[in-house]
Amino acid sequence: xxxxxxxxxxxxxxVASCAELLKAGEVVAFPTETVYGLGADASNPNAVTKIFTAxxxxxxxxxxxHVSSLAQMxxxxxxxxxxxxxxxxxxxxxxxxxxxxSNGVIADNVTxxxxxxxxxxxxxxxxxxxxxATNRPIAAPSANLSGxxxxxxxxxxxxDLHGKISAILDGGSTGIGVESTVxxxxxxxxxxxRPGGITREQLEIALGIDIHVAKPDVAELxxxxxxxxxxxxxxxxxxxxxxxxxxxxxxINTYRSEGRKVGILxxxxxxxxxxxxxxxxxxxxxxxxxxxxxxxxxxxNFKTEDVDIILAEVYPxxxxxxxxxxxxxxxxxxxxxx
Length: 338
Ligand code: TXA
Ligand code: MG
Known about the structure:
11-stranded mixed beta sheet, 11 helices
């Protein structure tokens, strides 16, 4: 079934219109500082169902709830442990989500029936204005078709979800480019379930303890349902290349000698050293935030009519590099040549 999708440019009137749609139980895509989200009223299960339908998202993968203040967060949880409070005070609003015990106010299909709820306060004027104007908790996964790279511009949302949602609120490109860090705060020591915009190092400094990052191979654990699904898949298969430029060029040449058209996803540092059929430069190794910001756009730029395979550079897993490599490994289905 196709529906009319209104495309709004961000201003006070369009925020008000989109807030009305959300209050009426419709779904609206909007920008956050990480990626675009597909929002619905998290207290309205019928509205939330529309998110799962539009994205083709499995019902057992819970959604993040977006709020505009700590006071609003407290309305949906039974407890905010001391470490979680520190995280909230230090990093919110910002690209981080805390998993807390739910008090049941948030609809069951948002939390996929779990006793916990993931909540964050986005640091983006459009997201904040929309949440405030709606005056409801807003459930919002990334606004892509399930399994595709997350959207970092309104055009990406349009490409994936046009005809399936009520509105897209265009607030320009998102800044950070990878999703929020998801931190489970329900146990004794906070654990990172998904690396993201706030780095492990930042969390360790703020909390004064070592923080563990859950490995994707513990994915089947019910505490981290989102980890077991395929994610961030470009249209073309992707393989990670872990080696120097000579090694990388050799691999390109091997695929080309088999008659395959090769796309490469690399940093500025490799751009002059390598030759391939399509070169996507996504940022600088010396400034990994630039890679994070352009990663999903670069993945979306590889089309089946242009290339048969993507070979991607491996980045250091420090700072936001941890989130970049988490997404690239999933995009590669964990295939790495070294
Ligand atoms: O930056 C972001 O977080 C973006 C923007 C739109 O806010 N949202 C986002 O949502 O990335 P989504 O649905 O694509 O990813 C949410 C992740 C999933 O891996 C999900 O399994 C996990 O958070 N999650 C949500 N609630 C959870 C819970 N109660 N327990 C464990 N994991 C949870
Ligand atoms: Mg997502």
